[in-house]
UniProtKB/TrEMBL annotation:
Annotated keywords: Sigma factor, Transcription, Transcription regulation
Name this polypeptide is given: Sigma-70 family RNA polymerase sigma factor
Family from the record: Belongs to the sigma-70 factor family. ECF subfamily.
Keyword Transcription regulation carried by entry: yes
InterPro entries: NTF2-like_dom_sf, RNA_pol_sigma-70-like, RNA_pol_sigma-70_dom, RNA_pol_sigma-G_actinobac, RNA_pol_sigma70_r2, RNA_pol_sigma70_r4_t2, RNA_pol_sigma_r2, RNA_pol_sigma_r3/r4-like
NCBIfam families cross-referenced by the UniProt entry: PRK08241.1, sigma70-ECF, SigX5
Quaternary data: Interacts transiently with the RNA polymerase catalytic core formed by RpoA, RpoB, RpoC and RpoZ (2 alpha, 1 beta, 1 beta' and 1 omega subunit) to form the RNA polymerase holoenzyme that can initiate transcription.
Pfam families: Sigma70_r2, Sigma70_r4_2, SnoaL_2
Domain spans labelled RNA polymerase sigma-70 region: 35-103
SUPFAM superfamilies, per the entry: NTF2-like (SSF54427), Sigma2 domain of RNA polymerase sigma factors (SSF88946), Sigma3 and sigma4 domains of RNA polymerase sigma factors (SSF88659)
Amino acid composition bias (Polar residues), ranges on this chain: 1-15
C-alpha cells in the first residue's frame, strides 16, 4: 500500500509527523511515542481479534512496539509507519497464538448440559476467550471493509476467528476489517497474493457458518437505544429480584448461557431456566448490577453478596446477545480482573447503605 493510498491514512503525511519520525530514528523515544500513540487503540483491537484475550493482546502489542522501536533505524518509508506497525503486530500475534494455542468458549468443549450443574468448578487447563473492554478504532474509511469496527469485536465474530489458522485469521482481519489490499497483505505476511486470496476464501467460509446474521450492531440500530436499554433493565431487575420467570420471559427459545471459566453451558428454555433457578436465582445470595458495555455489546456488571457477607463483591461481567428485542445469548465472564479493566469498583455496598 502506498503512502498516498486513500484507503490508509498516512502517519507520515504531515510535517510534524515527518519531524517526529526523523527524531525517532535518531533515538528520541518521546518522538516515537507521539507517532504511535494515536494508533494504539486500533492496534490493540487488532491484537485482541487475533488472540481473543486482552492480556495476550497487551503482550503482543508491547512486543511489536519494542521491535518497531529497535528497528526504526532500518525503516525505509516505503510504506506508512501504520502499515509497518500492523505488519510487526500481526506477526507477533501469529507467533503468540502458535505458542499459546487457540482460545475457547464452553460451547467448544462439548454439548450443552440438560440440567444445572450446581457444583461446577472453573477449568484451569483451558485457554478461555476473554472479553474486550476497549473501544475499537480502525482508522480506515475504506468502503471495501466488510465489517464495521464494532462488529469486528462482537463475541460471535471473535469466537469464530479462533477456529481459523493464524494465517487465515490475519488475512481476514487485514483485508475485510482493516481494508489492506491483498498484495500488501502478502508482503506483510511474507507470502504470495494467491496464498492470501486462498486464505481469505477459506476464512470467510468458516466465519460465515459461525457468525449469526444480523450483527449485534444491526440489531441495536433496528430496535433503538430505548428498547435495548429496556431489555437490559428487565434483565438486571430479574436478576436482582431473583425472578426466574421474568428472565425466561426475556429470552428466545434457543437461548444459551455460558460462564467461562466454568466448562458447562446451557441451551434452550428448559436448561437455561433450570440453571437460572438453581444457581444465580437460587442460593447464591443477593445481586447488585451496573450497566456497562463489552465487546461492543450491552453488558451488566454483576456483584454478588453471599449470605452474611458485608458487601457485594465483583463476580461476573455478563454480555448480552440480542435477537430482535429478546436475549438469545448470555455470556458471564467470571473474575474481578474484568471489573478492573473496565474501571469498575471491586465491591458495592448493600442497597440502602
Amino acid at each position: 500500500m502506498s503512502e498516498t493510498s486513500s484507503r490508509e491514512p498516512s502517519v507520515t503525511g504531515s510535517s510534524g509527523a515527518d519531524g517526529d519520525l526523523a527524531l525517532a530514528r535518531r533515538g528520541d523515544r518521546a518522538a516515537y511515542d507521539r507517532l504511535v500513540r494515536p494508533l494504539l487503540p486500533e492496534l490493540h483491537a487488532h491484537c485482541y481479534r487475533m488472540l481473543a484475550a486482552s492480556h495476550d493482546a497487551d503482550d503482543a502489542l508491547q512486543d511489536a512496539l519494542v521491535k518497531t522501536w529497535r528497528g526504526l533505524g532500518d525503516f525505509e518509508g516505503r510504506s506508512t509507519l501504520r502499515t509497518w506497525l500492523y505488519t510487526v503486530a500481526t506477526r507477533s500475534c501469529i507467533d503468540l497464538a502458535r505458542a499459546r494455542g487457540r482460545r475457547a468458549m464452553p460451547v467448544d468443549l462439548g454439548p450443552a448440559s440438560a440440567r444445572a450443574v450446581v457444583d461446577d468448578a472453573p477449568s484451569g487447563d483451558v485457554a478461555w476467550l476473554g472479553p474486550y473492554v476497549g473501544h475499537a478504532r480502525q482508522g480506515t474509511t475504506s468502503p471495501a471493509a466488510r465489517y464495521e469496527e464494532r462488529e469486528a469485536v462482537e463475541l460471535a465474530f471473535v469466537a469464530a476467528l479462533q477456529h481459523l489458522p493464524g494465517n487465515q485469521r490475519a488475512a481476514l482481519l487485514l483485508f475485510d476489517v482493516l481494508g489492506f489490499p491483498a498484495e500488501e497483505i502478502a508482503t506483510m505476511m511474507r507470502t504470495t497474493t494467491t496464498s492470501v486470496n486462498s486464505a481469505l476464501q477459506r476464512a470467510r467460509a468458516t466465519v460465515t457458518r459461525r457468525v449469526p446474521d444480523p450483527s449485534q450492531q444491526a440489531t441495536a440500530r433496528r430496535i433503538g437505544d430505548r428498547q435495548l436499554n429496556a431489555v437490559v433493565q428487565r434483565f438486571t431487575t430479574a436478576l436482582e429480584h431473583r425472578d426466574t420467570d421474568a428472565l425466561i420471559d426475556l429470552v428466545t427459545e434457543d437461548v444459551t448461557w455460558a460462564m467461562p471459566p466454568m466448562p458447562h453451558w446451557y441451551a434452550g428454555l428448559t436448561a437455561v431456566g433450570d440453571f437460572a433457578a438453581q444457581v444465580p436465582m437460587g442460593n447464591c445470595g443477593s445481586w447488585r448490577t451496573l450497566p456497562t458495555s463489552v465487546n461492543a455489546q450491552p453488558a451488566v456488571a454483576c456483584y454478588l453478596r453471599p449470605d452474611g457477607a458485608p458487601s457485594h463483591g465483583a463476580w461476573a461481567i455478563t454480555v448480552l446477545t440480542l435477537r430482535d428485542a429478546r436475549i438469545s445469548g448470555i455470556t458471564s465472564f467470571l473474575g474481578v480482573e474484568h471489573f478492573t479493566a473496565l474501571d469498575l469498583p471491586a465491591e458495592l455496598p448493600p442497597i440502602g447503605q
